[in-house]
Amino acid sequence: MKIVLSLTKYKQRKYEYMAALLLTFIVLLPKGGIRMADIPLTTGYAILFFLAGLSFTWYTFSGRIRWIGKYQAICLGCFIPFFALSTFKILASGYLSLGFMISFYVSLFFIPVTFLLLFYHPLKHISFEFIKSLLVKFIFLTAIYGIFLFFYKLYTGEFIEIPLVTVNMGDVGELENKHINRGGIFKLISTYNNGNLYGICMLMLLPLYQQFEKKTHKKGIVKLALLLTLSRTVWIGLIMFEFLNFVFIKRKTIKSYIGIGMALVIVFIAISIGLSLLNKNIYFLADSSLGGRADQVEVLNESTFFPDLSTPFQYIREMVYFSVIENFGWIGLPLFFLYLSTPILLYMLRQVPQPRFIVKKCLVLGLVLYHFVAIADGAILYIPIMAIYWLVVSLLLSNLNLPSSKEKPACTYV
Questions:
Q1: DSSP 3-state percent helix, strand, coil across the chain (nearest 5)
Q2: Residue 133 to residues 22, 127, 236, 387: CA-CA distances in angstroms?
Q3: Is residue 344 part of a domain?
Q4: How many domains in the chain?
Q5: Which stretches of the chain score pLDDT less than 70?
Q6: Is the Cα torsion angle 167, 53, 120, 110 positive or negative in sign?
């Protein structure tokens, strides 16, 4: 019996080390790495590739492929129609950029397949308390570092760059060229090197953080960091989070009604201060040019039902859904929704483990927030957007190891 317990403990520790390493370089330090032939290879993705290779090799020689869960298998099956359509389009019409073509397949297919296969078995052995504590710490640390870097740049005119750690070797000295300049004030970028990327990733994790971080001032620091991204998309996403979190997560008490009112007032005041610092008015939030992205909507005038094989594949641009139509025709949109939204649909149908637990509601809310911001700027091909999206999905579809089993089911549903 002691030997069995020791082996179980060893297996748990092994998986915990693997999870800690992966989360460190996907959530906390996502941009450190090198650039090969204009294609960034980050430490987090290198670790993911390595672990995927080990796992798939082990599955092959051990015959343990049966470890794939049925919900994960459903998601993988729903990948096939969009994968087939996009591959047909690329093979038939070619592509403009090898880098973006590789990013397309890595972000939209390799990463989700790896997370769905790689995380299914380990999550049964790792305590959710361990993963939760790491995520809460890393989210707060990225916010603290981001705020420090924001004001350091404001007063010194320079960024702090730590090659291979906070910045890719190929991007050293190039941070100011990443579309983060707002009239002389640079967006908060933290370790993500881009304000929008940081904001989108943190919005996906924010419901989980809001639920499990007990200290109000730490919650405020994370939201301040999101406001300092100076991104309209992130600002609107934050407002949407406050609303949806109140409607679907919080218990309805007089205190919670007062809290949501105060939170929205504070967010609006902070946005107003931000607009004044940028010498902008409220119309900046409703920019008719959509931040220079109006042409991504205008492509609908020339869109076709089936993919246009006379034009090569470009890449999925900021306005994700419009860009999917542009590249793959109108038929591509429902197939893309099937690909990306299957985990949310499974939750709505109560076809995920532990659907009544509050943590699952927080996870699905993070996915919903991504779908919302993807209308304007989903940055779907950029590191580490899809890694964090499918990390959240992996937790949603897994039977989380809650050691005390004392987490109370939620009273309301998403």
A1: 70, 5, 25
A2: 14, 10, 28, 19
A3: yes
A4: 1
A5: 1-11, 37, 58-67, 251-252, 255-257, 268, 270-297, 402-414
A6: positive
- Residue 51 in any domain: the answer is yes
Structure tokens belonging to residue 384: 């580490």
Maximum CA extent, the chain:
69
In this structure, what token pair is assigned to residue 243?
């609303």
CA atoms 217, 158, 169, 314: torsion sign: positive
Encode pLDDT of 3-54 as tens digits.
444 546 666 787 888 889 999 999 999 999 888 767 788 988 888 888 777 7
Residue 408 included in any domain: no
Put simply, whether the predicted model's pTM sits higher than 0.70 gets the answer yes
Which of 221, 220, 170, 176 shows the shortest CA–CA distance to 194? 176
Q: In the numeric block, which tokens belong to residue 83?
A: 């994968």
pLDDT at 412: 38
> 147: domain range?
2-397
- For residue 11, the model assigns a pLDDT of 66
Residue 406 lies in a domain: no
- Across-strand partners of 39? 36
CB atoms within 10 A of CB 131: 20
Distance CA 70, CA 397 (A): 9
